[in-house]
Amino acid sequence: MQRGIKAAGAAVLAVALATVAGCGGGDSAQEGQDGQDPATATGTLRVVVPNFSADNEGQAVFQGIVDIFHTTYPQMKVEPDFVPYDNLNQKISTSLSAGRNYDVVSAGIGWVQPLADLGAIQSLTKLGVKTEDLEKTVYPAFIPPMKFDDDLYAVPIVANPRLLAYSKSAFTEAGLDPAKAPQTLDELREDAKKLAKRDAKGQLTRTGFDFWAPASNYRQQFVDFLGAKGGQMFDDKNQPTFASQQGTDALELIHQMVAVDKSSTYGYQNTAKTALVTTGEAAMGFASPYVDCGTSGEGIGAKCKDLVYFNLKDAKEVMYVGGRVAAVGDGTKYPQAALAFIKAMQDQKSQEAISKLDVGVPISSDAGDSAFVKSNPAGSFAWKNLDKAIFEYGGATFLDFRAKFGPSLDEVILGKKSAADALKNLDAVARK
Fold first, then answer.
1. In angstroms, rounded to a whole number, what is the distance separating the alpha carbons of residues 97 and 361?
2. Which end of the chain offers a freer environment for a tag, N or C, measured as fewer CB atoms within 10 Å?
3. Cα–Cα distance for residue pair 428/432, rounded to 1 Å
4. Domain that holds residue 230
5. Max CA separation in the chain (angstroms)
6. Could you tell me which of 91, 122, 104, 15 has the C-alpha nearest to residue 65?
């Protein structure tokens, strides 16, 4: 398989759309299950889109998707609802209660099973989208997060990786080989201790390793460390598996780095909330898949050449990935049109535009050759390593569980509870 997600843009639904069209009840092969000819179909498609800014930039990105959709459904109206992720669950629940569910639902990867269980989104498998077709177009790791009760319920739109980076000059200064990233988690810890700089009072002046996480939000970092140890949060049946030796070791390591070595300051972020390794405030740490190499504004200029991107390695090489997905709302009168809108979201132009808003990367197999990816060294690394993706998701009650997960990890990180006890308690919560 070619590096990067294989054809998860326009191709991921192309076969499926043809299948759905053939299943419709209309006279034309181009008519969908809603029985409307796309060229003459009318109606209003309601689309909920989290974290699309309501400013001109966000409006322009959404309008670009609508323009693509209108090449197939020229007479259908599209009504967007831009909401923050914090309000998404309430918005969807309110719409369901009012009997006006959305036709298209965009959300994060961890939302698929909860929304399916809630009855907010419907099975794409029953609309003719085949798992085997998706398996040909995305890496295997991207399949389980899209499924609920063995049916596909969503398709990926863009990926939101959290990379690791280090400063070559900081490595050299600390006596480390600037051409060699840490190969194990133990090496990561030892390098972080050597990279940390302190003043005469012992206060950190340069963080050895930046977890890039505010208080109670070390979940994704734990998932990454857990994956490197060879573990995972949940199995394919959505049963929790994080309360393992791998989980205990991963969480204990984060505690050691923060509370014992003090090579990382718990919960610290700069005022801009940017990754400290890209600003020079940390020698190594988590970073976003976008770095501005310009010399004006927020650009870091020549420092781009000082950064090296790498993945966590130990038992397994992994890269934490979040992402945006899209699904068809349950009860929609326009399933074929909804699928067409999702296909428009997966167009490579849409992927690039959404990636800019989401600080993500396109998942199309052609994206690696695009100027958008090539011009951004962080995004280029992320795109090439999507085959190593590890995710945070796990069943119908995951959103409720996730709210309790971060604070529980904090108790361990700050030395208030043992890793084994905390994970055992969380395992019981996840199974309720």
1. 35
2. C
3. 7
4. 162-320+396-431
5. 81
6. 104
Supply 366's token pair.
Answer: 């052609």
Q: Which of 77-81, 223-227, 237-241, 253-257 has the lowest mean pLDDT?
A: 237-241
Token pair of 3 as six digits: 């590096």
Between strands 104-108 and 155-167, the pairing is unpaired
Within this chain, do residues 284 and 406 fall inside the same structural domain, yes or no? yes
Residue 276 sits in the same domain as residue 339: no
Give the three-class secondary structure for 308: strand
Sequence-ordered alpha helix ranges (H) in 208-244: 219-228
Same-domain check for residues 181 and 90 = no
Q: What domain count does the chain have?
A: 2
Same domain, 297 and 199: yes
pLDDT tens per residue, range 71-99: 999 999 999 999 999 999 999 999 999 99
pLDDT in the model for residue 13 = 40
To 5 degrees, how large is the angle CA 198–CA 210–CA 86? Answer: 140
Segment 112-130 shows an average pLDDT of 96
> Does 41 fall in a domain?
yes
Tokens in use for 291? Answer: 């770095």
**372-376 average pLDDT score:** 90
Q: What is the CATH number of the domain that holds 240?
A: 3.40.190.10
